[in-house]
Amino acid sequence: MINDAGLFAMAVIRFVFHLLSGLALVAAIVAGTLDAIQSVSASSVVLTSLGNAWLNLDPESLALTEITATTYLGQDIWRPFVAPVLAQPAFAVFLGIALIFWMAGYSRPQFAGRFSA
Prior knowledge:
The chain crosses the membrane at residues 81-104. 76% of the residues lie in helices and 0% in strands.
């Protein structure tokens, strides 16, 4: 049986995961809205990749992250794993992150219900 401190810790962890999920969902909505506005103004579908969005937002941090990752992890990690993610649409990546955090913080409801013995 889990004591009250353990239940409180689990509730806090679930709250943090749900908060991160909400923030990722807001980022996905913002990225999707910006893509929709650009698509309407260009009269064609415009999907901004995560790498381009990050480059437009803060190019120094993207370069620093790439240098740090290739220095400490090696190019064998950056090119096959991180570069394809940076090529995906930003809204889709943030939606995936939101789903992962939501699933990590999800707790199944009790089977028998609230008033069971």
